[in-house]
Write a structure and sequence with these properties.
Blueprint: E1 15-21, H1 28-38, E2 42-48, E3 66-72, H2 76-85, E4 98-103, H3 112-124, E5 129-132, H4 137-154, H5 163-170
């Protein structure tokens, strides 16, 4: 098992490749279908439960322009799987080619510590943190539009804008008082 590297293969013309990583596959399939339908350019969607990817078809695998880690806040296993998978990405991916998507953030049963852990992870890796509603078609469509915007830039389909520039504008930050106890 090797690291997934962002610049090991040449890009295809007017094509973007996105890798959706989700351990529970709740949102992954709906998001994949919506990404292909809604885009105005060619989008190839790859699905994975976790990283590392198998090495058997490494030479036939296209270059991955954006890696999206989907985290369900109602599941501790989802967060643990993402934390383990991040280690199998080359550091070059963290220059604007990775984002985290969180679902179920409005659920009252979700411990606030889990959301804080996700925010710290995204901030420590300087990656965007997106919130999505996976229970309705409108929520999936909104998540798709946000991902397509980031994907266009990551794939180099937007002139004069780089993934690193977009990353600097959209990366997650953690407020300085996040480690302080709350007085709720």
């Amino acid at each position: 098992m090797s690291l997934l590297k962002p610049f090991s293969k040449l890009p295809a013309l007017n094509t973007a490749n996105i890798l959706l990583v989700e351990s529970e596959e709740q949102l992954q399939q709906n998001l994949a279908e919506s990404l292909v339908e809604e885009s105005t350019f060619t989008v190839n969607v790859r699905l994975a439960k976790s990283l590392p990817l198998p090495t058997e078809n490494d030479e036939s695998r296209p270059r991955v322009d954006l890696v999206v880690f989907i985290i369900h806040l109602t599941s501790e296993l989802s967060l643990q799987s993402v934390e383990a998978s991040v280690k199998y990405l080359d550091p070059g991916y963290f220059l604007g080619k990775v984002c985290f998507m969180v679902t179920n953030a409005r659920n009252a049963s979700v411990p606030s510590e889990r959301l804080d852990a996700v925010r710290k992870l995204a901030a420590s890796l300087h990656c965007p943190l997106l919130f999505a509603e996976d229970q309705s078609p409108t929520g999936v469509t909104n998540a798709t539009q946000r991902l397509l915007t980031i994907l266009k830039v990551s794939a180099g389909l937007v002139p004069m804008v780089t993934a690193l520039h977009l990353s600097n504008l959209t990366h997650c930050t953690v407020p300085p008082d996040i480690d302080q106890p709350s007085f709720d």
